[in-house]
Amino acid sequence: MYLLDSNILIEYLNGSKKEIDFITNAKKNNEFLSFSVISKIEALSLSGLKEESVQDIENFLNVFSESYLNDDVATLSARLRRNLKLSLGDAIILATAISGRVTLVTNDKTLIKKAKNLVEILSL
């Protein structure tokens, strides 16, 4: 079970082979793939994104399970943000992975360093 960080989704959308291969193989193997609602916001608000691309991104995201914010994730996000000095987005994504007990797939080296003892992490 995997939670895909925003950078993984965005790199997939940009045509990065590593991310495409990982997601394609995971889907073939019926792996559970999800993303945080914050990743949806980040993917749909990319600089220079044309309106006609929005529907394509939404269709792509519909292939995965979306993890929404709840009170537990919000509380944990706030604590992680305070204690680890994370951005709001990274805190929400990390809290979502921790509370969902899933592997966080990210290429964010700073997040990996801060989160490595809190959740299983896979870097592509």
Automatic annotation (TrEMBL):
Coiled coil: none annotated. It holds the Pfam family PIN. Residues 2-116 form the PIN domain. It comes from the Bacteria. It comes from Candidatus Nomurabacteria bacterium RIFCSPHIGHO2_01_FULL_40_24b. This is PIN domain-containing protein. InterPro entries: PIN-like_dom_sf (IPR029060), PIN_dom (IPR002716).
